[in-house]
């Protein structure tokens, strides 16, 4: 079972993913004004690689942006590749 938790402050934040209660990875972002955030890093611990967890983090960020009227700038190369490959989340791109 996986769970995603969001941490958010005025300047930055993160989405952390847990697998069976253990932190498996995170995606960090920095706010660019009030209506956009920059995804700057996505990482999953090696023990959890290959399970699609990093993609779940990017989707969680896209869903958060959609629900809150925000836009996303994916500077992280992994996040950018997920946006490039998945048309269903491109509506939140800045």
TrEMBL record:
PANTHER family: BSR4717 PROTEIN (PTHR31435:SF10), PROTEIN NATD1 (PTHR31435). Keywords: Transferase. PROSITE patterns: GNAT_YJDJ. The keyword Chloroplast does not apply. This is N-acetyltransferase. It comes from the Bacteria. CDD domains: NAT_SF. Residues 7-94 form the N-acetyltransferase domain. It comes from Chryseobacterium taklimakanense. InterPro entries: Acyl_CoA_acyltransferase (IPR016181), Gcn5-rel_NAT (IPR045057), GNAT_YJDJ (IPR031165). The keyword Transferase applies.
């Amino acid at each position: 079972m996986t769970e995603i938790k969001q941490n958010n402050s005025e300047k930055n934040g993160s989405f952390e993913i847990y697998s069976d209660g253990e932190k498996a990875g995170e995606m960090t972002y920095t706010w660019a004004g009030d209506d956009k955030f920059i995804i700057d890093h996505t990482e999953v611990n090696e023990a959890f690689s290959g399970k699609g967890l990093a993609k779940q983090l990017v989707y969680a960020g896209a869903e958060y942006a959609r629900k809150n009227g925000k836009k996303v700038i994916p500077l992280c190369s992994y996040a950018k590749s997920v946006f490039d490959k998945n048309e269903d989340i491109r509506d939140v791109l800045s």
